[in-house]
Amino acid sequence: MPAIVLSPAERSALRAAAHRLSPVVTLGKAGVTEALLAETARALASHGLIKVRAIAGEREDRALWLGELAERLDAAPVQAIGRVLVLYRPKEDGERPAQAAPRAAHGRKSAAKSSRPR
What we know:
With about 120 residues, this protein is of the alpha+beta class. The protein has helices spanning about 10-20, 35-45, 60-70; strands spanning about 25, 50-55, 75-80, 85-90. A hairpin with a 2-residue loop joins strand 3 (about 75-80) and strand 4.
């Protein structure tokens, strides 16, 4: 079980923040190795929130690798989309992710609020 448990709002904020990130670690066909753990630990210490690209393995393998990385590195698994795994571990200063901002209602603007001249 991961050492860090995220609330749904924290997980949502982290997923949004991870959207703009590029993968900084590549997980190969050898799976989770000591070298991979060391590099991932360095990246987490530096960035806090990282993406890991898995270039091999099936969906089940990638889910197991995400869980293993989170458990062995005292991190929280944020999400896995395709071959990209997202991990979070607070930096040494103990910061936590910001709460997700409430979403604005979708839809058309009312005619009274429209800035377009008629």
